[in-house]
Design goal:
Among the domains are: about 40-180, Dipeptide-binding Protein, Domain 1 (Dipeptide-binding Protein, domain 1, Alpha-Beta Complex); about 280-500, Dipeptide-binding Protein, domain 3 (Roll), CATH 3.10.105. About 25% of the residues lie in helices and about 20% in strands. The protein has 16 helices and 21 strands. The strands form seven sheets. Strands 13, 14, 15, 18 and 19 form a five-stranded antiparallel sheet that branches. Helix 12 links the parallel strand 16 (about 370-375) and strand 17. Helix 9 (about 300-310) runs antiparallel to helix 11 (about 350-360). It is globular.
Length: about 525
């Protein structure tokens, strides 16, 4: 009977959309950017993270409050010196069924599976973009089948958060050694792989042997997940309105004025059938200056401050994003991060101060300044054109260069741009993830310090902060580091983003967190 159900699901999803009238509880969403792999070792973008998080588990996971909670590890102990982590595994976690296992039945996960998974993550032949997660790891070992030990080179309090990333998923060596693992993954998660036609449809179905329960009910509640790959955002939106998709995430210029009011609320005409969910997103959108290329922007802090003061961020957010997001009145670390503080004061719109700093820079009314070039991608052209208009009010002529996304990333990483738009989405919920962008040992292209900012004061405090185990004291250090970034006007934080989701009212218990995670194991479809 089981094989018949599996074949039935495969047939329905692969061949048509006629399953809409079936009794199966199927959650449907779209990935306009596509999915390039289902191997968690390469889960570096939202699309891949969302898909693999349904299929795989890690030692620990992140809940909706951004707290680290048990996953495959039922508990853990951290040594007093903060260097040794001992994880004690559950004994009821099994890999999905696969022909590589004895009798085709998924076997129990043991500590040596994590050792293999970490070996694979750091294998140069695999070349995982997530290998950096274990950079501070001195050693890891399976003490026995149920105990996994990790030793660090130096204390790093956010380490547990890193282990919740998809990169650290547990995978079976019997299957992962097969080159087809990227398209036929086997994990332990609430859903198991069923079908994938790249660029067309991905189908995951319920793992009947998943180890988690809620009030005596085995999770998940959904029968399956169906992912389509419609590239056009307006078509995606229309499919959502027609009921062919259960939810959409984010806003796009093609439909933002249709679904949102100017104040950023859900359009009243949809309130009887659509739910809007919004919460802080660990993402800072910003402009950045390259600090070591001897340009006028690099040398002249007053010029950078003049640009900072000249941008009316409130107007920008209202007219370009329907007030979705929070004006960045503070530092680089966004709202939603535990160490965020209003005591870190950033730049606010002030034309008088902008003109005064421009004069202090040696360019009164921008006389003799010349052309300033801002690099961006087409997705943010409207934002950069707004900034171009704002700078015109103090006499600065701004030229906008639009680059393909891949070219833009490469030029930023190789220090080819003096002034550029960027965004930073947290890999893990600790402010260190943001502050590391200004640590001199992280100069790009070997690290994320794309501005090439260098400060001995900053470096010394950063090194002290990342080893501090007292969370309150560490937060105070983080805030002082953020103040140093603002004081030097290295970047212009524009806004702190928000997670915005729209879903039909028959979708229940659908929650997210500040990392915009997609957790479907508790979701019900009424």
């Amino acid at each position: 009977m089981k094989w018949r159900v599996g074949f039935f699901l495969l047939f329905l999803f692969a061949c048509s959309d006629s399953y809409d009238n079936s009794d199966l509880s199927i959650f449907r969403y779209n990935e306009s950017n596509g999915i390039s792999t289902l191997d968690p070792s390469f889960a570096k973008d939202k699309a891949t993270i969302w898909a693999t998080s349904q299929i795989f588990n890690q030692l620990v996971s992140m809940d909706n409050n951004m707290e680290v909670v048990p996953d495959v590890a039922k508990k853990w102990i951290v040594s007093e010196d903060g260097l040794t982590y001992s994880f004690y595994l559950r004994n009821d976690v099994f890999f999905h069924d696969h022909k590589s296992f004895i009798g085709g039945k998924g076997r129990k996960v043991i500590a040596s599976d994590f050792r293999y998974s970490f070996d694979r993550l750091t294998d140069e032949k695999i070349a995982s973009p997530g290998s950096w997660v274990l950079n501070n790891v001195k050693n890891y070992s399976a003490k026995n089948d149920s105990t996994f030990i990790i030793e660090l080179n130096s204390p790093f309090p956010p380490f547990l958060s890193l282990l919740s990333m998809q990169y650290c998923s547990v995978i079976p060596n019997e299957v992962a050694k097969n080159s087809a693992f990227r398209s036929n993954p086997i994990g332990t998660g609430p859903f198991k792989f069923q079908f994938w036609k790249e660029g067309v449809k991905l189908v995951l179905r319920k793992n009947e042997n998943y180890f988690e329960f809620e009030e005596g009910n085995r999770l998940p509640y959904l029968d399956a997940i169906s992912v389509t790959f419609i590239k056009d955002k307006q078509s995606e939106f229309l499919n959502f309105l027609q009921g062919n998709l259960d939810f959409i995430s984010g806003i796009d210029p093609s439909y933002k004025d249709e679904i949102l009011t100017k104040e950023g609320d859900l359009n009243p005409k949809y309130q009887d059938r659509i739910t809007m969910q919004s919460l802080p997103f660990l993402n800072t959108e910003y402009l950045a200056f390259l600090m070591d290329n001897n340009s006028e922007l690099s040398k002249n802090i007053y010029l950078r401050r003049a640009i900072n003061y000249s941008i009316d961020k409130e107007k920008m957010l209202k007219y370009l994003r329907n007030n979705i997001g929070e004006v960045a009145r503070n530092g680089f670390v966004p709202k939603g991060m535990s160490s965020f503080s209003d005591s870190v004061i950033g730049f606010s719109y002030n034309l008088d101060l902008a003109k005064e700093n421009l004069k202090l820079a040696g360019f009164p009314n921008a006389n003799g300044l010349g052309l300033i070039v801002l690099n961006t991608t087409s997705a943010y052209l409207d934002l950069c054109e707004f900034i171009q208009s704002e700078l015109k009010d103090i006499g600065i002529t701004l030229k906008i260069e639009v680059n393909p996304p891949s070219t833009h990333r490469q030029m930023v990483a190789t220090s080819k741009l003096s002034f550029f738009r960027g965004s930073w989405i947290a890999d893990y919920p600790d402010a260190e993830n943001y502050l590391s962008l200004f640590y001199s040992d992280n100069f790009s292209p070997n690290g994320p310090n794309y501005t090439h900012f260098k400060s001995e004061e900053f470096d010394n405090l950063y090194e002290e902060a990342i080893k501090e185990t007292d969370s309150e004291l560490r937060s105070e250090m983080y805030q002082e580091l953020d103040r140093l970034i603002i004081k030097n006007s290295v970047v212009i934080p524009l806004y702190y983003d928000q997670v915005v989701r729209f879903y039909h009212i028959n979708i229940l218990d659908f929650y997210s967190n500040a990392q915009n995670s997609l957790n479907l194991k508790l979701v019900k479809k009424d």
